Amino acid sequence: MTSLYATFWLRVAAFFIDILLIAFFFYIFKNFLPQIIGLFWINILFSWLYFALFHSSSWKATIGKKIVGIQVVKYDGERIDFKQASLRYFVSLISTTLILPYLSIVFTKRKQAIHDMLAKTVVVDAITSTKDILQNSENFNEQEQSKQIKKISLKRKLVYILLIIFIGVLLYTIFPFVVLFIAYSYMYIEKDLSYNKSFHTLYQERDYNDSRINFYKKELERSSKGLVNAKGVVDIFEYDTKVDLSLECIEYYMKDNNETEWIEEGSKYANNARNKFAINNDLIKNVKNNADNMGRNFYLYDLNLVNGIQSDMTNLWGDKSNQSLCEQNLSANQLYDVFLTNYLAQYIENHISSNKRKSSVSDNHQFLQHKYKTEKEWLEKITKKSSLDIYKQFSSGKITLEDVLKDNQFKASLETTDVVLEKKEFIVADRNRGIELWNINSNNTVHFQKILTDKYKALRIKRVNNILYVAANGKQRGSFFLIFSYDENTKSLTELDKVQMRFRDWKFFDKNKKVAIVGGYDRMLILDISNPKNIKIIRKEKPDRTNNMSFDLVINEKTNKLYEITRRSLNIFDIKNNSVLKSKVYYSLKGQNSLAISQEDNTLYTLHMMYGKKGSDLKKYSLDNPNKPKLILSKQLDMNYEDWSSAFFANMKIHKDRLYIAAKNNIYIFDKELNEIQIRKTPNIKYFYFQKNKIIYTAGKNGLVFLDNRH
Fold it and tell me: Which end of the chain is more exposed for a tag (fewer CB within 10 A), N or C?
């Protein structure tokens, strides 16, 4: 008869009571339990004994089942033994993880779960079974039967009430979490499907007819190819960083083109670059694994630090008045070199702080011990690929991290960009540390002396007597043309005045140096600097579609002509009475350009570098007609844009009938017929100057370098 067997909800109620009792036991006695095999296995052991002993006892039930009035028995109604009870428990343990086997209670005739069937047991309703037993007994007493049934029914009602309250509170508590779980699960599944689909989708890109975006698109593709095939953690980190830097430069120029959806448009470039090389399932799987690697090691790599350095470099989220390294058109490899220098210096400093915290607590503090160990292992791996000798010494075990920080604190932040020399004294512009004073020792070696000011990130510098003219970025925001007075006795600077201007170069164009013309990203300013304490703007040439920025400026002193080269044109101006009168645009260009002029033979040289195009154009013009330069020589240089981009923008000079051009790691020397006559190795060159028989050049983190220039 079906009424003999316990219903699904009676068994659920009993199970909840048993689970609460077991949990209560562990909460009270967990500190007294042995830790040899772990709490999990102790829990399994205790639960087995609890269920097996109670089910095989005279009760035929656990405490929970006793309260709700149900029993576990054999098919014939007899008590089960310990072996049968143990089998039932372990099968139920497996069934519990699957949940579905419990649903058979609702549909089977004897209301059995899977573990009941395998153990050959049934769970009976104590009210029905009590009625049967008493009625078939010789001492049947109807009053006694009614009393026992009423007692069981009362307990059961109380348990049902408590169970309803418990389930209600539970649902009220977890309902918001269930909703969130479902919502996030849906979003995760949808995102995962979208992510998988993105590997097989060709996205329509906008290039805005901007060669700068096309240049960094190629850098993004090179980096993506490396990331798709990367295996080791260092290679994954390197190429992932290069991808991010290239992409941020693309998005930087999208913003420059007034694109409001630059994040979405940028992701199209990233996906297309990745998909170009992730062409089969194995490579797609490797891409996903590499992405997982970056996520798993978020704190080890300190990706907050990574993102902060990248943001400072590209200025993607910053004020447009601050200069972005993207505007120097550095390759992904060059951007990564800058990134790695900053990353290693800051990471090591943070790592040493972590070591101090570790040392200040108990040696048993496993978290800090593990953190310090994994950070050190990561540093050892990444420094092996660093181009800086001091990091290589650390990775080979020759010096400690503390030595790196102590000895390299100066070198890691060094980024010399310009220099002026007077009386064996150098005043150096440094884009990280400001304006510095260096000197020449008795043994003719250059020695750092002091920082004159660290308020600005100095890029260009000129000196006239004791007046210093500086082009710099502010430490916080903005780019400026500044004037300082320099006290030779106290070796100190006093700021006199400044004008906000995003510059590239400037020239004095009167003999007394009282007027300056400044060219840059905001096009061109003509400044009256006769009173250093009060700079006046005489005239401002605003950028337009043809002339969006000034790349280089030269002045022909014989004819009083100013030649300005922009991204798209060469402009010629007449200079009269300390003013500039604009003439017509001479010709159209696209790319990055430089100028040099020979006053002796009245000739003009232009160097034209097209983004993404192989080769560079070097041209020589006659200025016999100053308003209409005549092309007399042209030469295609077998060098790509990337070869020029690490040198700063004014990278071409005339000296003693020879033309000098600074590129990535060399100075190329040409005669006036544009024949290449010499190549000088100049690693990391920025700006260069001539001083007697020497070439002096600034070389970023390599400081100042002297070359013998005797032919």
Answer: N
